[in-house]
Amino acid sequence: MTRTPPTTVARVRLWRWRRNPLRRHSDVVEAWIVLAGWVLALAVGILAGLVAARTSASGFTARQARVHPVSAVVTSDAARTPAASDGYGDDRVWAVVRWTDRDGSVHTDRAKVVPGATAGSRVTVWTNRADRIVPAPLVGSAADLQAALTGALVAPAAGALVWGAGWLVRDRLIRRRMAEWDAEWKHIGPRWGNLSGGRG
After folding, report:
1. CA-to-CA distance for 173 and 164, rounded, in angstroms?
2. Can you tell me the distance from the alpha carbon of 36 to that of 162, in angstroms, rounded to the nearest whole number?
3. Contact call for residues 46 and 97 (beta carbons, < 8 A)
């Protein structure tokens, strides 16, 4: 007994763009929606990434203009080991420091210093306009890297939103096409049955 080889169905690529008797207007519209969705997703993603990177870089520059470094003195010996629950991800410890601003006013605040820093040690801290110690601003390559990472994260997110909107439009079009097919079958189906019965 010979086996009949399985029938393989060749997938026709780009069939919505080719002229054929089974292609409908909705198929062409769907093809354009898919193409436009990908193009817009790519364009919007790149544009959003560039804007986010530039905005982030501008924010770093603006923050740097609002703070300034000062030389402070550690007022008492700092701990030799960082606290286990510090949560800052570095090896520095908290200590009280004192500094004098430009008008001669003396200020004290807590800052991160190297473990074991002795009283009288000088450290550089960053302060804001209210004379409070703030984290050092990102500058140079660190700021450039952070801005680039921000753009790299925003770009695919923005592109995905645009692609998702295109997918929703396409899904609605498919549902509409299925409804049209169902309505046509309800109209033609009984006639098809009568033709089949007449031939029998």
Report:
1. 14
2. 10
3. no
* CA dist., res. 136 & res. 127, Å (int): 9
Rounded Cα distance, 21 and 29, in Å = 16
Tokens of 197: 């019965």
The tens digit of pLDDT for each residue in 47-103 reads 999 999 999 999 999 998 899 999 999 999 888 887 665 455 578 899 999 999 888
What are the structural domain ranges in the chain?
25-66+137-174, 68-136
Task: Please name the residues in contact with 164: beta carbons below 8 A apart, sequence gap of 6 or more.
Answer: none
Q: What is the pLDDT of residues 151-169, one digit of tens each?
A: 999 999 999 999 998 888 8
Please state the pTM of the whole predicted model: 0.63
Strand 106-113, strand 93-100: pairing: antiparallel
Name the CA radius of gyration of the chain, rounded. 34
- Report how far residue 157's alpha carbon sits from residue 49's, in angstroms, rounded to the nearest whole number: 9
Of the candidates 57, 55, 54, the residue with the CA atom closest to the CA atom of residue 137: 57
Please report how many Cα atoms fall inside a 13 Å half-sphere around the Cα of residue 124, on the Cβ side: 5
* Ramachandran angles phi, psi of 128, nearest 5°: -95, -170
Cα 55 to Cα 150: distance, rounded to the nearest angstrom: 9
